[in-house]
Write a structure and sequence with these properties.
The complex is a heterodimer of chains A (118) and B (110). Chain A has strands spanning 4-7, 10-13, 19-25, 32-38, 45-51, 57-58, 67-73, 76-81, 90-96, 108-109, 113-117. Chain A has 118 residues and is an all-beta fold. In chain A, a hairpin with a 5-residue loop joins strand 5 (45-51) and strand 6. Chain B has 110 residues and is mostly beta strands. Chain B is globular and about 40 Å long.
Chain lengths: 118, 110
């Protein structure tokens, strides 16, 4: 199946700093990528939908100025958590579709990034 | 997307079939039933999906009732590596974002 990678896998940052998380589709071009957040013992919550070459669409309650999403190429989307606070500590997961294969029913998920804000 | 209801947790003996139920009584005609699973601290993994007919692939089988109000995911010979949270999702297509519910924590016991 298609492979999606995320970098870094873990990051610890101090409160008030910004951190960037990368999501890459390694062997396919992804016109659409999704960003999810998962708190401990909870389910995944969609944060935003990222479309290549256009502005991301954010879910209700997600601050677009705090969670900056850039989808500058067909293989890379980035999520920047700006002015991070301890409550932003979470597991961030991206996913992507590979429309070229005709398997548009399947989303490929990255391995996730564990963010800890101290 | 239609709401789905799953048991919070289930246990299964290693080597036995694991049958995971899901209720989706308000599913609409153009919504598929998708199953994903998430092993601890990893990203979710697609398992299978179906619309009306039963489906089988190398990982699992999906049985959908005739009225489409419920379905069952079957792992025919569960292994310890199948221990994960299993999510049943009703959606028009994965082209759209997926709405994850609470899922079922399946624990395969040795």
């Amino acid at each position: 199946g298609a492979v999606v990678s995320q970098h870094p896998s873990r990051v610890i940052c101090k409160s008030g700093t910004s951190v960037k998380i990368e999501c890459r589709s390694l062997d396919f071009q992804a016109t659409t990528m999704f960003w999810y957040r998962q708190f401990p013992k909870q389910s995944l919550m969609l944060m935003a939908t990222s479309n290549e070459g256009s502005k991301a669409t954010y879910e209700q309650g997600v601050e677009k100025d705090k969670f900056l999403i850039n989808h500058a190429s067909l293989t890379l989307s980035t999520l920047t958590v700006t002015s991070a606070h301890p409550e932003d500590s979470s597991f961030y997961i991206c996913s992507a579709r590979d429309p070229s294969k005709g398997r548009d029913y399947e989303q490929y998920f990255g391995p996730g990034t564990r963010l800890t804000v101290t | 997307d239609a709401k789905t209801t799953q048991p919070t947790s289930m246990d299964c003996a290693e080597g036995r079939a694991a049958n995971l139920p899901c209720n989706h009584s308000t599913i609409s005609g153009n919504e598929y039933v998708y199953w994903y699973r998430q092993i601890h601290s990893q990203g979710p993994q697609y398992i299978i999906h179906g619309l009306k007919n039963n489906e089988t692939n190398e990982m699992a089988s999906l049985i959908i009732t005739e009225d489409r109000k419920s379905s069952t995911l079957i792992l025919p010979h569960a292994t310890l590596r199948d221990t994960a949270v299993y999510y049943c999702i009703a959606a028009v297509g994965s082209a759209r974002q997926l709405t994850f519910g609470s899922g079922t924590q399946l624990t395969v016991l040795p």
